[in-house]
Design a protein that fits this description.
Active site: 43 (proton acceptor)
Strand content: 35-45%
GO biological process, one term: NAD+ metabolic process
Structural class: alpha+beta
Radius of gyration: 19 Å
Catalytic activity: NAD(+) + ATP = ADP + NADP(+) + H(+)
CATH architecture of the largest domain: Sandwich
GO cellular component, one term: cytoplasm
Number of strands: 17
Distance between the termini: 42 Å
CATH topology of the largest domain: Tumour Suppressor Smad4
Largest sheet: 6 strands, antiparallel
CATH superfamily of the largest domain: Probable inorganic polyphosphate/atp-NAD kinase, domain 2
Strand order of the largest sheet: 6-5-16-13-8-9
Helix content: 10-25%
Shape: elongated
Cofactor: a divalent metal cation
Length: 254
């Protein structure tokens, strides 16, 4: 094969079988010599792969062998080399999360889908929302709130009734999760350059956690989120079924 591929797979039986078959059929290049990563699994495993190998700046071509495959291509082992050569790249910019906790520590994390805040107990969360240093909501009473990238807008954001964002739109979705007050606020679409800050009010009585994709920080006091201007990742998609088409088609699902 002309492509220098490093194969990875989720722990499911089907994905592990595909990994074994791929290595037998095509061999494998060590990670530090590869020019592309092929991932077998679902969207959750794709996010793990992006986080694990982000520093190497290699494009990732996924094949669906999981429950959800929005970020994946169809599984087919034939003509893999040609499929990768023909694949169209989609560049994603991750969200950067900076958290201050009750203990006084500062934690940083990266999210390709969304950063979400969720209440930790039966008590509703009380959150102050600021954009670029200006308070926009003095107190949001809710189960939580999230900030989503366009690539993540069809995931948790959509389940929370947030808008679907086209790739390349240079906007982010700010979506409340089960908001109680103010009752009529349903979120906002923000320019991608916006810095968002969430302050947890009464955090001792009403503890809140923050999650960047699957990385969780508990007992938070304040969270600042912004889109990275330096880090990018590249996903590869078959021309007949690229990510922009999937996001467009998702808006017509009933």
């Amino acid at each position: 094969m002309s492509q220098r591929i490093y194969f990875v797979a989720s722990k499911t039986e089907d994905a592990q079988a595909a990994l074994t078959l791929a290595r037998e059929r095509f061999g494998e290049t060590p990670l530090d010599e590869a020019n592309v990563i092929v991932a077998f699994g679902g969207d959750g495993f794709m996010l793990q792969t992006l986080h694990r190998h982000n520093a190497r700046c290699l494009p990732v071509y996924g094949m669906k062998l999981g429950t959800v495959g929005f970020l994946m291509n169809q599984y087919r082992m034939d003509d893999l080399d040609q499929r990768i050569a023909r694949a169209q790249p989609t560049t994603l910019r991750p969200l950067m999360m900076e958290v201050q906790t009750e203990s006084g520590s500062t934690v940083a994390a990266t999210a390709f889908n969304e950063v979400s805040l969720l209440r930790q107990t039966k008590q509703a969360a009380h959150v102050r929302v600021s954009l670029n240093g200006i308070v926009k909501l003095e107190e949001l009473v809710c189960d939580g709130i999230l900030l989503s990238s366009p690539a993540g807008s069809t995931a948790y954001n959509l389940s929370a009734h947030g808008p679907i964002l086209p790739l390349g739109s240079n906007v982010l979705a700010l979506t409340p999760i089960s908001p109680f007050r103010p009752r009529r606020w349903r979120g906002a679409i923000l320019p991608s350059a916006t810095q968002v800050r969430f302050e947890v009010l009464d955090h001792y009585k009403r503890p809140v956690s923050a999650t960047a994709d699957s990385y969780e920080v508990r007992d938070i006091v304040e969270v600042t989120i912004f889109e990275s201007q330096e880090k990018t990742v590249s996903l590869l998609f078959d021309p007949e079924h690229n990510l922009e088409d999937r996001i467009l088609n998702e808006q017509f699902e009933i």
